[in-house]
Structure prediction request, 273 residues.
Amino acid sequence: MGVISTSRTLFTPWNISLALIVVIVCTALFCALHPRPEKVKAVSPERLEALKRWLPPEKPAPPQPPAKRTEWHPFWTVLTAILGYAWVGWWAVTRGTVTLELVNLAFMCTGALLHWYPRRFLEAVREAARATWGIILQFPFYGGIMGIIQYSALAKVFADWFVAISTPRTYPVLAYWYSGILNYFVPSGGSEWIITAPYLLEASRRLGVSYATITITYAWGDMMTDIIQPFWAIPLMTIAAVEFREVAGYAFVMFLFYMTLVSIACLFIPLTL
Prediction:
């Protein structure tokens, strides 16, 4: 598909107008949905105490065995950071691009430097992962789903199916809905796009709908079922000690309004963005 400029997706009048409308409508709706004071679930003082800032472990006093001294010596974090930053800089200069993997590497090196000692950095990562373990566990499975679709005939089958039941005008709406449904099972925009792009774009080409048009409707669909998918709420629910069923009702009402509003908008999106 090549490179699609953001001037054809994010910064189009259609997308900016829809984003403003969604923000205004959803904000007003959430204000209306806010429960009465007597029905608000308050966080207990004990829970608030547990949510206080994490305190890093203190460096143990000498003497320490060699393994302990290694864990509490900054040499290893500094060396890791230097090597990581060098790779990021070399890649950016020689290739002229910065990938998501490079951004992740730079953040990891920065985190290691800020914690200074290897043991302190490891403890911080372990503490943070307690609230995000569900997310970490799911991503390898998304990779498996992506591989099944990408390296089989399923991509062509799906493309043929989309072409058979769509017209150029209805295809953006169908892609919006399909993206939303798939997002419920693969709630990751990047992973989902890798899975769907081969056949969504092929169907788009055959129907005469621009790649930019179908990309932006895909993105809106990807956000649709985030509202009722507990994936995004895992860290929040862990911290606040609530279950998703306690917020699901509010989320479902928002989902109905959002889904209807954006579905109508997709019927009027320009087909040649």
About this structure: Residues 65-129 form one domain. Residues 180 and 222 are 5 Å apart (CA to CA).
